[in-house]
Amino acid sequence: MTTEASEPVEQEQLRLITRVAWLYHMRGLKQSQVADVLGLSQSRVSRLLESATKLGVVRTTVRTPDGLQLELEHALTETYGLRDAYVLDVPGANDQDLIRDLGQFLAAYLAEKPLTGDVVGFTSWSRTLREAIADMDAMPGGSASYVVEMLGDVGPPDAQHEAAEVTRQVARMLGAQPRFLRVPGVLKSAKGRKALLANDQHAREALSLLDSVDEALVGIGTCAVDPPRRAGDNFFTLEQFALAKRLGAVGQVNLRFIDADGHAVESELDELVIGVTLSQLRACGRTIAVAGGTTKVAAIRGALLGGWVNTLVTDATTAQALVDWSG
């Protein structure tokens, strides 16, 4: 990238400009707070923000220039055989900040590489995916015939309503018909699951579309109950998560458990879930996961090694841990 006077901008300088712009415009920090976080003077922060505008890093949103994390992205794709990897470097993020930042980063990615599959799978319960969609008004170039939810409801009625609205918004942006799974994501028994599906034609139709998903936005989770979800609330109980861990699980992709090497951890728990299977995910052309944080590294690594995900959006700390673990 060059300035208006065609003077080259060094990569490290460009990285710093983008970090300053992100913290100021997207995180909402004051210039003095940005200076404290990055160890800079406030006057330098002001100059870097001016440079961000001149370079086009800041428009109506903060845009991360291509190749800013080129080495890490290349290392991820080579190490795990990914289709694509996109890495965001934002310092000092707590869990809630990371969810918001990665959601906004995914929104920027989808604006440049929109969803175009005939059938798009969407994980409406993922907080990071909901954050991404909330940050989007449109997806230029995107199109689909159907947007289908890939997991039933997890959580109380207000969360179910929010999930349905986000799915509807994705479908609207793609000019597609939404297909909902307004059934519990996890049932108490396999018999109860069978009986429910036998009497819910809409759920059966949505599930049948999962055999034809071309592109998918999926969630990667640990073997724990992360707030605001609650154990047993259309979700696995603490005892069921403990069982999965005893069987070798380090995480789950859309509530399908996997071990450290990415192999499926099969058990009776699979018969309780209403949602996409791992084999259906593997058949997708582009399976996008957005996930980060130290607690999810093992789960993300398993998802990549197993081939359940082929496109990853994550943060720089997580990306480095993934590369170091396999290197």
Give the tags.
327 residues; alpha/beta; Arc Repressor Mutant, subunit A; 7-stranded parallel beta sheet
Description of the structure:
The protein has about 325 residues and is α/β, with parallel strands linked by helices. It has two domains: about 1-65, Arc Repressor Mutant, subunit A; about 70-325, 3-Layer(aba) Sandwich (Rossmann fold). The protein is built from 13 helices and ten strands. The protein has helices at about 10-25, 30-40, 40-55, 70-80, 95-110, 125-135, 155-175, 190-200, 200-210, 240-245, 280, 295-305, 315-325, and strands at about 85-90, 120, 145-150, 175-180, 215-220, 220, 250-255, 255-260, 285-290, 310-315. Strands 1-10-9-5-2-3-4 form a seven-stranded parallel β-sheet, sandwiched between helices. Strand 3 (about 145-150), helix 7 (about 155-175) and strand 4 form a beta-alpha-beta unit. Helix 4 (about 70-80) packs across helix 13 and helix 5 crosses helix 6. The longest helix is centred in the first third of the chain and has 18 residues, at about 95-110. It is globular. The two termini are about 30 Å apart. The relative contact order is 0.13.
Helices, strands, pairings?
Layout: H1 11-26, H2 31-38, H3 42-55, H4 70-80, E1 84-88, H5 95-112, E2 119-122, H6 127-134, E3 146-149, H7 157-174, E4 177-179, H8 190-198, H9 201-209, E5 215-218, E6 220-221, H10 238-246, E7 249-253, E8 256-259, H11 278-282, E9 286-290, H12 297-305, E10 311-315, H13 316-326
Parallel strand pairs: 1-10, 2-3, 2-5, 3-4, 5-9, 9-10
Antiparallel strand pairs: 6-7, 7-8
